[in-house]
Known about the structure:
With 145 residues, the chain is of the alpha/beta class. It has a single domain (4-144), classed as Rossmann fold (3-Layer(aba) Sandwich), CATH 3.40.50. It has seven helices and five strands; from the N terminus they run βαβαααβαβααβ. The protein has helices at 13-29, 42-45, 49-53, 56-81, 95-106, 120-126, 129-136; strands spanning 4-8, 32-38, 85-90, 110-114, 141-144. The chain has a five-stranded parallel beta sheet, with helices on both faces. The chain is globular, with a radius of gyration of 15 Å. The chain starts with a strand and ends with a strand.
Amino acid sequence: MYKHILIATDGSELAQKAVAQGLAIAKALGTKVTAINVSEPWVAVAPGEVAMAFPIKDYEESVVANAARILSAVETEAKALGVECNTLHVKDQFPAEGIIETADKLGCDLIVMSSHGRRGLMRFLLGSQANKVLTHSTTPVLICR
């Protein structure tokens, strides 16, 4: 069935549900996992005047440290379950694009991720990364809410 599951996480409480679900599936099926965290480009996070107060070097250092913390926790959880788990920090990509490209590149046959379930204006302004993955990925996607 599935041989390589990609689990996308941003470290949030909601994303942790997807991590737990993805690892449970991997354990049940005896498959390997790659857990990824995607960091958006600095220009997307710090536009205009904000960029002056938040230098790119500080941003890059903080996203690397944050990704390491998030992925280390997934690695620890996978190890406790006896699931083979690699981790990957994808930098300077929008989450949906980074998730889809990584799944394709690694030959993953299932993507597991969460959806924040934003509606109305928040969805319009922030978009839905889960929806973008669902509509653009050729790899099956499991969305956890």
